[in-house]
Amino acid sequence: MLVLSRKEKESLLIGENIEIIIQSIDKDSVKIAIVAPKEVKIMRKELVEQVTLENQQAMITLDPKTLKSLLQLKKESSDE
Q1: How would you class 11 by CB atoms within 10 Å of its CB: exposed for 0-12, middle for 13-18, buried for 19 or more?
Q2: What is the pLDDT of residue 58?
Q3: Which residue ranges make up each domain of the chain?
Q4: What's the confidence (pLDDT) of residue 43?
Q5: Which of 1, 6, 36, 31 is nearest to 19 (CA)?
Q6: How many CB atoms lie within 10 A of CB 22?
Q7: Is the dihedral of CA 50, 56, 61, 62 positive or negative?
Q8: Which residue in 33, 50, 40 sits closest to 17, CA to CA?
Q9: How far is CA 24 from the centre of its chain?
Q10: E runs forming strands in 7-79
């Protein structure tokens, strides 16, 4: 892990085409801007973790009969 200190309006580069700019610094937060190509996915980590957890919970709570029914419905819709 690389740890850097940056002041407001300073930036850093990741590779040749991703720039992270420190827009403002407040008491409890830092506002950043990210300049990157459109094909680069940028997502907040806590949202990715939340969706992953919800997906895992959905798989756990899915009983075998429901799973079998869902798979059958999927098969029938793909056959059409």
Answers
A1: middle
A2: 76
A3: 7-38, 43-80
A4: 94
A5: 36
A6: 16
A7: positive
A8: 40
A9: 23
A10: 11-14, 18-25, 30-35
Please report the pLDDT score of residue 80 as a whole number.
64
The answer to whether the pTM exceeds 0.70 is no
Q: What are phi and psi of 17, to 5 degrees?
A: -130, 15
Q: Residue 8: name the closest of 21, 18, 17, 19 by CA.
A: 21
DSSP characters for the chain? -------TT-EEEETTTEEEEEEEE-SS-EEEEEE--TTS----HHHHHHHHHHHHHHHHH--HHHHHHHHHHHHHHHH-
One digit per residue, pLDDT tens: the chain, 80 residues?
999 999 999 999 999 999 999 999 999 999 999 999 999 999 999 999 999 998 888 777 777 788 788 888 878 877 76
